[in-house]
């Protein structure tokens, strides 16, 4: 592996079932010490055994965030083993489950990573189950104790004993707490582990001093570090139930970290464990509705002191300051009186009141307080500051987070698509966000119809008001958008802005939508002179780098509202997230320097990730194909037509070939005419694929083929999610150029399979593609790969060129869509707009006199039966402006 991974980082891609590992090139420090290579090698052999032993290692600052997070899960599992008091008794039969606190900490600390949408409590519990199976296999044949096994792999692990310390509240006022020491032992009659008072051990292990000493070893360690425990041991009171004063209980509670460090498990009241009754400042933002909409709308806020869930006055807080440190019983609750913390809290509260008097904050500033409210108030770390939404802002964000609560958007008869329920909810959400003046990111999974949802919104706007809307897309998507607008909203008037030299009337009230490219957004400066009602970015990852001229030009566009579309929400780079939101809602995440300071703080406290999510999630609508609760009616195989535009070189060659064919047809008859037509069809297909295929050249530049550009658009999303794809072509000579192009997109080699691939080699290729190592793509010639292969690791199929035989195409698709496939399969059929490919596709699928079974049975021979005029209509490109 060596040189292949030098200068690269190991990242983790999380999936619905578990996780995958992959090496990527990345800026910044990288691990070249071989450790990550070893992890990867172990992963290929047994993923969960690798994960289990990863839990014994120390983390490294050079690791990717995703690997660090996976390490956190593994460490938590090993820690739970070490804290299971009956582990020596249960061994391979142990059931290890995450604690409630552990689950919360893991999820709060989850960074922005690939597949983060799959990580929830259920995912962690399922991975714990698989790790438990590994532990059982490893400990079953181990001759020593579990403690010896753990310490053998990490000498720093703190293994707990079998002793518990319990503290509970007691109703008696003089001694309001009770203490009891217990130990875990096996009830042989009922065959289960039970807890019993520690004094019982004196009888169970009578005359077995070595076992008594081993059991009490953790207590001895605690007695050496704690005067309180030492006195209980010396007096013998440790072996009996005890009544404690509040002072004694406070001493015990403060010393819990010491006891746990010595290996004693402590069971204590929840109010102390979770600091439930602690003092905090609650800052509610946006209690009342502002007088205007948009991110600049002004919101009020109000600070309030709370003790647990009850309000506390400033006078009551000052009264607490008069008491000594310790436990105090106030308003029916025990709380900790810490003079330093009380003073810090009072100071922060007074600062908050001062801010209230200085004026209101706009929505972006108010929401941003959830990220850096502590910095704003300059509060001490020990002050519990809770910033939440007031009544109005909460009602708004609840709808942003739950589109089902938003009223339905009427679309009218002029909108020609039938939307699924989730798509209509998406339209409602986009309209709601636009009406509020908020920037919105529609981040639905690939194939769920982001385009049609935006077109529905634009059609609704057309029907209700006059508006100037701008859509910015990659040049390769021009044909796709044009086709979908014409299909779904034929009355929507749009203007394609292709050239910086072209004079475009941006004030034309008859145009509902101007469509241009990212490159044109840089060159066409007059786009920045218009105050747009709505600016929409498709493939919005194009502005992820805030320093590029392209990103800066797009961000200079003025608009009342903005929408960003992306199938891959920001993953693995928080700077990408900031750049996207700097376009959508400037100021929401602060300026670049403020956000950088915040992200640096995540290294010390990863709980900041949950704060960041709470701020950005209301502005992102993300639905997954895998979520049956949201999308119950999706087919398991989704087929879509993906349109590519001809490049200039393709268009010239295509038009020239049409002219030549028209001339030759005049003098051709019979077999010669049929041969001419069939040969021409092949040539047209070659030109649509790539000019170099037709010309017999071998450069295969991406810019010269619309299909190569569309292939890149699709496959970049597949790569970002670390999924796999099958690409079919009917031309064996195209398998190599397509594979070379994909290798640049996926940053690694894939596989090719064609008629010349030996049978034995085919089996090896299938095994490799379906294996644990990430092999992103396989390019197959349609005849060679259409039958007999099981390639269920892929959940994407791309038909690069069309066979015009649905049965053959479906047979090829079924290499992935077959028994054993656990994911939805997406089928992309590439079609070059305006060419013979689009026209024949229309004949096959449309209400044409041409029956599909004729096409299926005779392949392309039926075309030779057309007369000359019909043939020229089939081959000729439409004139500019024709649909």
Task: Give your account of this protein's structure.
There is one protein chain. The protein is an alpha/beta fold. It has five domains: about 150 residues, no CATH class; about 110 residues, no CATH class; about 120 residues, no CATH class; about 220 residues, Rossmann fold (3-Layer(aba) Sandwich), CATH 3.40.50.10810; about 240 residues, Rossmann fold (3-Layer(aba) Sandwich), CATH 3.40.50. The protein contains 38 helices and 28 strands.
Ordered list of secondary-structure elements with their pairings:
Elements: H1 2-5, E1 8-14, E2 19-25, H2 35-45, H3 47-54, H4 65-82, H5 87-90, H6 100-108, H7 121-140, H8 146-153, E3 163-169, E4 177-187, E5 192-197, H9 200-204, H10 209-215, H11 217-225, H12 227-235, E6 242-244, H13 246-254, H14 256-261, E7 265-267, H15 270-273, E8 279-285, E9 298-299, E10 301-307, E11 310-312, H16 314-320, E12 326-330, E13 333-337, H17 339-358, E14 361-362, H18 363-377, E15 385-389, H19 391-401, H20 421-436, E16 440-442, H21 450-464, E17 469-473, H22 478-488, E18 494-497, E19 513-517, H23 518-523, E20 531-537, H24 549-555, E21 558-565, H25 574-584, H26 592-601, H27 608-616, E22 620-621, E23 637-644, H28 648-665, H29 670-689, H30 691-695, H31 706-720, E24 725-729, H32 735-746, E25 751-753, H33 759-769, E26 777-781, H34 782-785, E27 796-799, H35 806-813, E28 825-832, H36 836-845, H37 852-858, H38 868-875
Parallel strand pairs: 3-7, 8-15, 16-21, 16-22, 17-19, 17-20, 18-19, 20-21, 23-28, 24-26, 24-27, 25-26, 27-28
Antiparallel strand pairs: 1-2, 3-4, 4-5, 4-6, 8-10, 9-14, 10-11, 12-13
Domain Helicase C-terminal: 710-867
EC number: 3.6.4.-
Organism: Proteinivorax hydrogeniformans
């Amino acid at each position: 592996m060596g040189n292949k991974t030098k200068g690269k980082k190991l990242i983790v891609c999380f999936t619905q079932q578990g996780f995958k590992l992959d090496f990527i090139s990345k800026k910044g420090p990288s691990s070249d010490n071989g450790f990550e290579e070893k992890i990867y090698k172990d992963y290929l052999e047994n993923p969960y055994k690798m994960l289990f032993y990863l839990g014994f290692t120390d983390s490294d600052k050079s690791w990717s965030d995703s690997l660090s997070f996976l390490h956190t899960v593994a460490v938590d599992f090993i820690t739970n083993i070490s804290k299971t008091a009956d582990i020596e008794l249960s061994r391979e039969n142990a059931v290890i489950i995450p604690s409630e606190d552990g689950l919360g900490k893991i999820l709060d600390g989850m960074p922005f990573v690939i597949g983060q949408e799959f990580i929830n409590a259920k995912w962690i519990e399922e991975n714990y189950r698989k790790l438990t199976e590994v532990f059982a296999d490893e400990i079953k044949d181990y001759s020593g104790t579990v403690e010896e096994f753990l310490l053998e792999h990490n000498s720093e692990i703190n293994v707990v004993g079998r002793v518990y310390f319990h503290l509970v509240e007691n109703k008696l006022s003089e001694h309001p707490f009770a203490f009891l020491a217990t130990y875990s032992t096996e009830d042989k009659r009922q065959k289960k582990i039970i807890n019993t008072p520690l004094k019982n051990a004196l009888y169970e292990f009578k005359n077995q001093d070595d076992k008594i000493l081993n059991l009490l070893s953790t207590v001895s360690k605690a007695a050496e570090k704690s005067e309180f425990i030492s006195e209980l041991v010396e007096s013998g009171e440790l072996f009996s139930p005890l009544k404690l004063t509040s002072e004694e209980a406070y001493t015990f509670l403060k010393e819990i970290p010491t006891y746990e460090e010595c290996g004693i498990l402590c069971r204590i009241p929840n109010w102390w464990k979770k600091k439930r009754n602690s003092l905090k400042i609650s800052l509610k933002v946006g209690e009342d509705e502002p007088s205007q909409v948009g991110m600049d709308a002004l919101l009020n806020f109000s600070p309030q002191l709370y003790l647990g869930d009850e309000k506390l006055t400033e006078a009551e807080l000052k009264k607490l300051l008069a008491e000594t440190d310790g436990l105090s019983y106030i308003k029916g609750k025990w709380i900790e009186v810490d003079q330093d913390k009380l003073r810090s809290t009072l100071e922060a509260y007074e600062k908050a009141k001062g801010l209230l008097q200085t004026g209101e904050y706009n929505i972006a500033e108010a929401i941003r307080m959830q990220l850096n409210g502590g910095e704003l108030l300059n509060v001490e770390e020990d002050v519990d500051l809770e910033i939440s939404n007031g009544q109005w802002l909460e009602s708004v964000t609840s709808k942003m987070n739950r589109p089902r609560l938003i009223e339905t958007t009427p679309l009218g008869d002029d909108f020609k698509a039938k939307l699924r329920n989730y798509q209509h909810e998406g339209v409602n959400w986009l309209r709601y966000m636009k009406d509020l003046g908020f920037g919105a990111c529609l981040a639905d999974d690939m194939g769920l119809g982001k385009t049609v949802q935006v077109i529905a919104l634009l059609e609704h706007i057309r029907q209700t008001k006059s508006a100037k809307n701008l859509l910015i897309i990659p040049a390769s998507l021009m044909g796709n958008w044009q086709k979908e607008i014409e299909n779904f909203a034929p009355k929507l008037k749009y203007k394609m802005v292709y050239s910086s030299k072209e004079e475009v009337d941006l004030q034309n009230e008859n145009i509902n939508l101007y469509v241009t490219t990212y490159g044109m957004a840089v060159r066409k400066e007059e786009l920045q002179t218009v105050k747009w009602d709505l600016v929409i970015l498709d493939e919005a990852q194009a502005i992820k780098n805030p320093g590029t001229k392209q990103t800066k030009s797009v961000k200079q566009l003025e608009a009342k509202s903005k929408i960003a579309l992306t199938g891959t929400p920001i993953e693995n780079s928080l700077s990408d997230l900031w750049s996207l939101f700097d376009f959508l809602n400037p100021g929401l995440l602060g300026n670049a320097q403020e956000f950088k300071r915040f992200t640096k703080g995540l290294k010390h406290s990863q709980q900041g990730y949950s704060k960041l999510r709470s701020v950005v999630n209301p502005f992102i609508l993300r639905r997954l194909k895998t979520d049956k609760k949201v999308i119950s009616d999706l087919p398991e195989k989704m087929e879509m037509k993906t349109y590519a535009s001809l490049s200039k070189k393709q268009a010239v060659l295509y038009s020239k070939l049409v002219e030549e064919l028209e001339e030759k047809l005049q003098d051709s008859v019979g077999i010669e005419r049929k041969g001419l037509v069939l040969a021409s069809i092949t040539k047209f297909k070659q030109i649509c694929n790539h000019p170099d295929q037709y010309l017999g050249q071998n450069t295969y530049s991406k810019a010269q083929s619309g299909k190569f550009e569309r292939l890149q658009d699709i496959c970049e999303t597949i790569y970002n999610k670390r999924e796999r794809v099958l690409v079919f072509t009917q031309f064996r000579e195209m398998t190599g150029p397509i594979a070379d192009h994909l290798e640049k997109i996926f940053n690694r080699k894939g596989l090719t399979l064609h008629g010349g691939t030996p049978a034995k080699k085919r089996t090896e290729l299938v095994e490799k593609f379906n294996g644990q190592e990430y092999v992103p793509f396989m390019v197959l010639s349609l005849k060679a790969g259409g039958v007999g292969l099981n390639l269920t690791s892929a959940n994407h199929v791309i038909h690069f060129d069309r066979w015009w035989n649905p049965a053959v195409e479906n047979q090829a698709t079924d290499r992935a869509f077959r028994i054993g496939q656990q994911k939805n399969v997406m089928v992309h059929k590439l079609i070059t707009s305006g060419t013979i490919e689009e026209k024949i596709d229309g004949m096959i699928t449309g209400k044409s006199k041409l029956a599909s079974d004729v096409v299926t049975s005779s392949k392309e021979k039926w075309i030779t039966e057309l007369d000359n005029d019909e043939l020229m209509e089939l081959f000729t490109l439409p004139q500019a402006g024709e649909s």
